[in-house]
Each structure stands twice: as structure tokens, then as C-alpha cells.
Amino acid sequence: MSIHAQKAKDFIANEERTNWHDGALWHVRNKRDISASGVPEWEALRNTASQIKDNVLSNLDTYLIQFEAAAKANGVHIHWAANGNEHNAIIGDIIDKHNARKIVKSKSMLTEECGLNHFLEDNGIEIIDTDLGERIIQMRNEPPSHIVLPAIHIKKEEVGELFHAQLGTEKGNADPTYLTKAARTHLQNKFFEADIAITGVNFAIAETGGVVICTNEGNADMGCHAAPVHIHCMGMEKILPKLEHLGVFTRLLARSATGQPSTIYTSHYHKPESSKEMHIVIVDNGRSEQLAKEDFRNSLKCIRCGACMNTCPIYRRSGGHSYHATIPGPIGAILQPNRDLKAYSDLPFASTLCGSCSDVCPVKINIHEQLYKWRQEIYKNNELPKSKVTSLKIATKVFKSPSTYDFLGKFARASMKALPRFMMYNKFNDWGKHRELPQPPKQSFKEWYKNKNNE
Ligand code: SF4
């Protein structure tokens, strides 16, 4: 069984959680639909965003250099990291230089991707995630299960127990307002004690050298305003050419993510205050390689809204952790094989290829087509399990021969009626483990169609 299948099996063992997780994400998807349908030019916005990103990907080197020059002129320190280790080392050096011991961080999937928290903790540095969902999963010592709603797999009662154990809240109190207030008090102290604040970046503007951070909690701003040093970590694909392009993306991002017209805070950082330091770390970590792959390069258009996860029937019913990757869901399933084809060869198969992900994607990434393409690559690279290769070869032979197909259809219909149950439902029948096979029809569709035409 693949890692995804095993982890999905563990997740769906709790039927109540599975149904509730499915329903919660579908609710977010519905909010996205209502919000998007309120913008008459929605499809035009998607097309424009996709075209802007096409331009960015075709001229990435030029825009990055332009961004670096503009940011340096603003007094910002720019660092380049080829991979996660370099990213962590750069941040480690800044921390050492300032003799810092306490760091606050606002939500950043890039720092998750680079393993920054573990790196800093191993070096004796306290790092506190300040986004509420991120803080909850950090306290549980878990990775996020969703890129926008990192703790969507956790019920409020579980948060109540966690806060009781770690923050001393009232036992049995799972009221969200009460728990949020407790988290706010806990985090307030962390903000004021912090030596350095770290944030992710939603957009970086080549023209101005500024970065833009979208949050609902204002935690990125709180951290950056309170700490004497702030560091912004960005994947190199986050560039937009001009400030005038930003509005296209901010209109799409929050609506696609949660159905809000915009995030509560859309903060622009251009230069440090006179007594402070501002750093930007630009990270590659496999993005150049993805850019070079014609079939997969436009996955770099992703603005991390999470809409493809909320709509995906597999994601909703298997949970984000089943993808065993930093970015889960449909977009994760096309990004991760680029990093390690062997380790993530199961992910492109965790899809029905229904195309709903591509339909909701605000930057029009052809996600389901790339999933299908990755399946072909995985087969060509001999990364498919032998059992799957064998069954696909048999299926190919059957589908290529109408007479064999007709014969096996007849045989299967007769067997399903005649065979005892234990021969139909056993360890070889994965499909039947959780489902009843349908009653076999009296005739095949082909026979029915022929008879109808003869009548
Ligand atoms: S692939 Fe598209 S829908 Fe999915 S997170 Fe990225 S931008 Fe959003």
C-alpha cells in the first residue's frame, strides 16, 4: 500500500472526523463560489493573473535582478538561497549576528518547506509561530495539514484540551472566543520578547523592491513592528513585475481561499525603520528545475490560496497529512514529484482527475492535466509498483480486444452471482474492503444497445 493510501486509511478510520473535515472544506469551497460569482469580471481576472504569471516565469531572471536592485536601494539586505539548507544557514547567521534567542514567525509555507523550525530549535533558538492555526499545530508538534487552514483537521474540543494542558485554560472549555483570547494573551508576550520577526511573502514587486504579506490576524505586522530585525522569506516565483499588477492577485487570493473579498491585512514592506534592519531571503529550492520542465513549469504560478484542496474530493476525505508533504492536495501532488520522484510517486495517483482543482484555480493552472502527465513520467521512470504495472498491462490487453472484453464481462457477471462471498470479498479485493459491489446487470451495455436498436 502506498504511503498516501496508508495515511488516508488511518484518517478515514475516524468516520466522524472524516465527514466533518469533508463538510468544513466544502463549506469553504461554497463560500469561494458565492464570492467569485459576485465579481462579474472573475474569469477575466483569472486570465489576466495567468498571463501576468506567464510573463513572470518567462522573464524571472530579469525581474529578480530588478527586484534585488530596488530593494537594496531601499536599504534592505538581500540574500539568495539555492536550497533549504542555505536558507536556514542565512537565517542562522542573521540570528548569530544579533545574538538573538527569541524569534516570532508569521505563517510561511516556505519556512516549513525548508524545515526552519527544527533547524532553529536544534540550535537552541525559541521560534514561535504566531498565526493561531500554526501555533496550535506547533504545540501539537505536527506539520500543517492545509496551506491556508493549517489546523483544519483538529476539533475545537481538542484545542481546548491542548490549551488546558499547555496554557492553563479552564478544563473542558472549548469556546472558540475564550480559546482565541487565551492564545492572544500568550502570543502578546512572545511578540514583545522577540529579538527577530520572520514572515513569509505573498507577493514581491520587482518595480518597487517591496514585499506584500496578506494575513487575517495581523500577526506579521505585530511581529515586524515590535522586533528590531525582520526577515522575509520568499520563493523566487513570488515576483510580480509592477505594483499595478498586485490588485489582480489580491482580488483573487482571499476570495479563492476563504470567500472573503480581501484578507483583513494586506501589508506592504519597503524599507526598515531608521533604527531597524530588514532582510529578504530569496529561495530557489527546486524551483529552477521545475521552471525548466515545460509540462510542469506553470505550477509555479501558484499563489497558495488552497482552493484546489477545498474542492478536491480526495483531499477532503483523506486529510492533508496523508500527502506526507509540505504542500498537500492537488498542487502538492504536482510540486512534490519534482523534488523527489521516488518518494512522492504515489501523489499524482491520489486524484480522480475530475478537474475541479483546475476549475477553481485563480491562476488557471492545469492541475489535473499535470497530474496525468506525472503519472506517465512515473511509469516511464519505473517508479510504479510492480503490481500496478502488471494490472495495467493486463487491462491494456483486455481493453484492446473487444472479444476478450465481452467474454470477461460475461464471466464476471456470472461469477458475481454464483461465487460465495468469501471469494469475492477478501484481501485481494481492495475495492471491496469498504464497499459492496453493485448487483451485476443481466446484460452488458453493448448487448442492451444492440437489442434496443433491433426493437
Ligand atoms: S494551485 Fe491554484 S487553487 Fe491550488 S493553491 Fe495554487 S493557486 Fe490556489
From TrEMBL:
It comes from Neptunitalea lumnitzerae. Residues 435-455 are annotated as: Disordered. PANTHER family: LACTATE UTILIZATION PROTEIN B (PTHR47153:SF2). Gene3D superfamilies: Alpha-helical ferredoxin, NagB/RpiA/CoA transferase-like. Residues 444-455 have a biased composition (Basic and acidic residues). This is 4Fe-4S ferredoxin. Pfam families: Fer4_8 (PF13183), LUD_dom (PF02589), LutB_C (PF11870). Keywords: 4Fe-4S, Electron transport, Iron, Iron-sulfur, Metal-binding, Repeat, Transport. Residues 293-313 form the 4Fe-4S ferredoxin-type domain.
